[in-house]
């Protein structure tokens, strides 16, 4: 029989308050006292191993009283306790034979799945140009059940070696599914080499490739790489599959998505990809302005839009269409010379590819700071100032950022800088902020589905 792993907490309680001292903490568990929304006391359990626990109490005399059994769903759980009455000792004891893991017990999912497959989009996001940007392969169309499974996997910390981080750790909804840190922290405290790219409207990219250096040919390839990366999540695909198979509630989710409870790497990849592609922004101030000729814009936002589309800026050359993504091109934007990080050149080994990086959608750009592949710019103002005065000459600098060619026999053209006035720079930033769609960051269907409050 497995030896119980106890955690003792003594509660000195009154009707108004409680104090706690923790004795003999189990190696994989930590606790603290908290208060529930209604004012009651809670025992906050941190348990990356997601063990099952029996709550027991003792008043100092007689026998221990058994209370409910609790399964930690995804690293933490808030357990209600009674703060009123005589002094009590509370004990958590590991359970040898935990109850069956169920969807209802672990997850907060609606009876009828959310609509991921057929979202209602405004007319300007259903044009042939926009539809041509979709990178969904023919064998992995988004389904409600598939994206639901992908949502659970996206937030599940079992996907990392020590069960402390998930995909959502580096792609946080409130930050446009990016990371506010310049470099993300992996499962063992190491830092990634690049900034985590925002995922909003990732389904729209004509070139289809993923990662800053475009080394993944499809999103289906991309989603599996961080899981195996020795810094990010640090787990093998075989161990990942074994963990998911061992968690009972996944059988129901895989059956709904793929017709059987079988867990495979391919199914995990497809479900995660479906969820990521479902994260679509379509209700920004910009979107609201399209059908009314942008009459909802302030004067500054309107001037900024003109700068962006042509005028003194011409940003749309690389961030085109209503999704603000490039066509079939990858760009060198003259961040430095030579590039410390060679981008695509690191993948191909070709000097002609050095300094080329993917151009992601600008949708929700105001939420995804810091900016560039290495997070070197903390604000949109700094980004605009770079294009205004800081573009560096580089042999591979993209044509959009070069001055017009001089007459034959003259030196090659230098970098094109915007040379905007302070007002123009402020106007351009004001326009970029109209691309913010906060509904993407608050819509329940994109948020963490795990139950962390015990009944």
Structure characterization notes:
- With 455 residues, this protein is an alpha+beta fold.
- It folds into three domains: 7-99, Sandwich (Immunoglobulin-like); 104-281 and 441-446, Cytochrome c-like domain (Cytochrome Bc1 Complex, Chain D, domain 2); 285-436, Cytochrome c-like domain (Cytochrome Bc1 Complex, Chain D, domain 2, Orthogonal Bundle).
- 25% of the residues lie in helices and 11% in strands.
- The protein has 15 helices and eight strands.
- It has helices at residues 103-106, 128-131, 144-155, 167-170, 219-222, 225-228, 237-246, 249-258, 265-277, 285-289, 299-309, 344-348, 380-390, 422-433, 439-442, and strands at 7-13, 18-23, 30-35, 41-46, 52-58, 65-71, 76-81, 88-94.
- The strands form two sheets. A five-stranded antiparallel sheet has the order 2-1-8-5-6, with no helix packed on it. Strands 3-4-7 form a three-stranded antiparallel sheet, with no helix packed on it.
- Helix 3 crosses helix 9 and helix 13 packs across helix 14.
- The longest helix has 13 residues, at 265-277.
- The two termini are 29 Å apart.
**CATH architecture label of the largest domain:** Orthogonal Bundle
Radius of gyration: 26 Å
What count of structural domains?
A: 3
Proportion of residues in β-strands: 5-15%
Class computed from helices, strands and strand pairing: alpha+beta
**How confident overall, as mean pLDDT?**
91
Pick out the low-confidence regions: 1-5, 12-26
